[in-house]
Amino acid sequence: VRDAAEHVMKMHPMWQGPLAIPGGDRQSPIDIVVRKSIFDSELKPLVSVYDPNTCQQIWNNGYSFLVEYDDTTDKSTLKGGPLQDNFRLCQFHFHWGESNAWGSEHTLDRRLFPAELHLVHWNSDKYSLFEEAVMEDNGLAVIGVFLKVGKRHEGLQKLVDALPAIRHKGSVVEFTRFDPACLLPSNINDYWTYHGSLTTPPLTESVTWIIMKHHIEVSHDQLAVFRSLLFTSAEEDVQKSMVNNFRVQQPLCGRAVRSSFS
Ligand SMILES: COc1cccc(CN2CCc3cc(OS(N)(=O)=O)c(OC)cc3C2)c1
Ligand SMILES: [Zn+2]
Predict the structure, then answer these.
(1) Alpha-carbon distance values, 218 to 11, 176, 178, 229 (Å)
(2) What ipTM did this prediction achieve?
(3) 78, 133, 162, 184: which could form a disulfide with 127 (CB 3.0–4.6 Å)?
(4) What is the distance in A from the centroid of ligand 2 to the CA of 152?
């Protein structure tokens, strides 16, 4: 089912050319084998403090759409959980499929979800810019939230309504006063965590992944608007629907996946 989608995904220009990461033994995404995850009682509750006023713009980068936040101060931050330091929110984005049968990057016991939300943060205790942190072991923290198709997500609708304005690669519109906390599940203290990488270039192995156990629900129609976006810019002759923008799963290479719940 997903093999066809993986074939389509691999055709995207993003994945042409040499992408083998030298010595890449902590790549993402992965399948989380739930029964093999290790409960770690030392894992603390996650503390996210997001200021909706730091929300700046939404744009189509030719692979997903990104909602970008002002990360020049510690106004929107994440700490606790598996994290030793304070991390600043810089953007969030999604990955999704051409159908509701697949679309997520991570899986739970091989179970595919129709989409996955990623909230990208960088370590502002140790670095002064995302660009620096992206190269470092403990530089990034990404929260992953699975999406399921069901009831309409009221908080998401403001974002869905902005998407027609950024249909093409490279388009940007102002997008303000959006609280990303509305996209988190009610319980953020049940999660899995492991050390991995970005799933898009530069694919650097600098990410502490925090994958939520609980999913959020969005409606079929809301997800259909994601699929109305285009990978291609307005000038290109052939327009390609932005779907299947997920990376193939990577080998675990002996990494431990810890759980915050037993
Ligand atoms: C490599 O230096 C950069 C500095 C600033 C911004 C970027 C652009 N990049 C950051 C990381 C990232 C990571 C992304 O996905 S993911 N799954 O978090 O790895 C992504 O998905 C659409 C987009 C981006 C955008 C790179
Ligand atoms: Zn992502």
Answers:
(1) 28, 21, 17, 17
(2) 0.94
(3) 133
(4) 22
